Amino acid sequence: MIIVGGSSSRDLAKELSNTIGCAYVQAATTRFPDGECYTRIDTESLEGDVVIVQNTYPDSNLIEMFLLQDAVKKMGAERVTLVIPYFGYARQDRVFKPGEPESAKVMINHLGMMCDRVFTIDIHKESVLDYFRCPHRDLKAAAAIAEHFRGRGIDMVLSPDLGAKDRARDVGERMGVPHGYLDKERLSGTDVRISSEQVGLIECRGKNILIVDDMISTGGTIVAAKQALKGAGAKSVSVACTHGLFVNNALERLTGNALEAVLCCNTLENEVSHISVAGMIADALRESW
């Protein structure tokens, strides 16, 4: 097996190759002055099984993934596996108005033209992967998050809304602590309201709370949840997510909001991506071969 690291996932790809104990090749990717992508895999050949580790977010990384797929095929790869730590366009999975594309399906149809197996991590809606005609599997980061926080004094795990309650349950059960969820009402693209009445029913007074979610974009949900929990008497509030998008200075907003900790997995590499998913990816790759 040979791991090829795209520009969006260099550190994760290197750690994955070290964990498995296989060869690693870093794609040399640059941008022309007009913004077009140029990439090259600097090795003689790529025979056998090749794993490309690369995000499809933002659009520039999606284009790089297409080019890497073509390159490894031309270099002799017999089987190509895509490891997509963060799958861009997964949230655009439905058509709401006439004239809109099925964006997630379009991206999958193109990615699926030159691959034999696909792994994603906590994709927004797992059902979109069924558009792939090859074997596919979405890996769950709950185990990695639970392992990171085990023994750090967390008393309760909560999700910021009903939709993520299964994630909170998974992390909480792995850590051996109670779990639950908050009641979120979205007011706008950046602002939400957390029901103070519902928070009052959660026994959080004097406890260290961990909020878990699949992704953090603007951070509005986390700020509202922290304020509601602290208002209800929580001792501390930490937050962990799989994908730290942190758009529009969201990370600065969160770190300046008296949270005990703000962490994410290394699906998107940034200054707080200290929870590694390399081990779980390595296990999945070993099982599939």
Can you tag this structure with a few keywords?
alpha/beta, five-stranded parallel beta sheet, seven-stranded mixed beta sheet, 9 helices, 289 residues
Task: Provide a compact summary of the structure.
This protein has helices at 10-20, 59-74, 103-111, 142-149, 165-175, 196-200, 220-231, 250-255, 278-288; strands spanning 2-5, 23-31, 37-41, 48-53, 77-84, 117-121, 136-139, 156-159, 179-181, 184-186, 192-194, 208-216, 236-244, 261-264.
How many H/I helices? 9
State Rg: 20 Å
Any idea what the shape is?
A: globular
Helix/strand order, N-terminal first: EHEEEHEHEEHEHEEEHEHEHEH
Helices and strands: which structural class?
A: alpha/beta
Number of strands: 14
Q: Taking strands numbered 1, 2, ... along the chain, how are they ordered across the largest sheet? A: 3-2-1-4-5-6-7
* Biggest sheet details: 7 strands, mixed
The residue ranges in which pLDDT falls below 50 over 5 or more consecutive positions are none
Range of strand content: 25-35%
